[in-house]
Structure formats: structure tokens, C-alpha cells
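Module 6 notes. Inverse folding takes a fixed backbone as the condition and produces residue identities as the prediction. Think of it as a translation problem where the source language is geometry and the target language is the twenty amino acids. Below is one complete input and output pair. Work through it position by position during the lab.
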């Protein structure tokens, strides 16, 4: 079971890294999930992720306070808006599907925006 969890953790890291380059795929939720999976399968890799210069501090902020930095909130919501623009202009032709995607993105944006900032 430990190896399955470890494999899933690495899968989440991989998807998170891909998300750095694709505006429609968020990075942080995958890294949060990877850290949680590493905590259950490999303390060494969990520590590596928490010490990572790019991902470490946001993960620590999330664990301690459920907090998201202002910069991350702006980036997240901005990329959601860009993604939705892509869906509207190039996505499926069904209006109901575009509206459903919009509703999901609004809910995600509301969640992100209502998280506290680190240290507050």
C-alpha cells in the first residue's frame, strides 16, 4: 500500500509540474495533495517538497493556516479567467457545458479568495 501511495504522490508532483506550463491546470492543489501523500508514504520526500524553494512555503502556509498568499490568489483567479475565456471561445459548442464550467470556476475562485493570507 505504501508504494501505491508513493506512486500517487509522484504522479501528483508530475501533474503539478505540468501545471506550471499550462494555464488551465493548477499547480498548487496537486502539490498539496502530493505533500499529504508523501506524509503517509515517505517522510524524506515530504521534507524535500516542504524544503523546495518554489513549492515549500505555500505548502507550509496551507498546512499551518489554510492560507494562500495574495500573489497566488491573483495568479490563480487570473488563470481561471483566462482558462474560461479559452473555453468560451474555443471550447465545446454547448452553452450548458460552458455555463457549468463557468460555475465550477466561480466556485473555485470563491474558495481561493476566501482563504486567509499567511500570517493573518
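Target side of the pair, the amino acids:
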Amino acid at each position: 500500500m505504501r508504494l501505491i501511495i508513493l506512486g500517487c504522490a509522484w504522479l501528483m508532483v508530475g501533474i503539478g509540474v505540468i501545471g506550471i506550463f499550462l494555464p488551465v491546470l493548477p499547480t498548487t492543489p496537486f502539490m498539496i495533495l502530493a505533500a499529504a501523500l508523501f506524509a503517509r508514504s515517505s517522510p524524506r520526500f515530504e521534507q524535500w517538497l516542504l524544503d523546495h524553494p518554489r513549492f515549500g512555503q505555500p505548502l507550509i502556509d496551507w498546512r499551518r493556516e489554510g492560507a494562500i498568499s495574495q500573489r497566488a490568489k491573483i495568479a490563480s483567479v487570473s488563470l481561471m479567467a483566462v482558462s474560461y475565456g479559452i473555453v468560451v471561445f474555443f471550447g465545446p459548442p454547448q452553452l450548458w457545458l460552458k455555463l457549468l464550467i463557468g460555475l465550477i470556476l466561480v466556485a473555485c475562485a470563491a474558495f481561493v479568495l476566501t482563504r486567509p493570507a499567511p500570517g493573518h
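Reference fact for the lab report: The CA atoms of residues 32 and 41 lie 14 Å apart.
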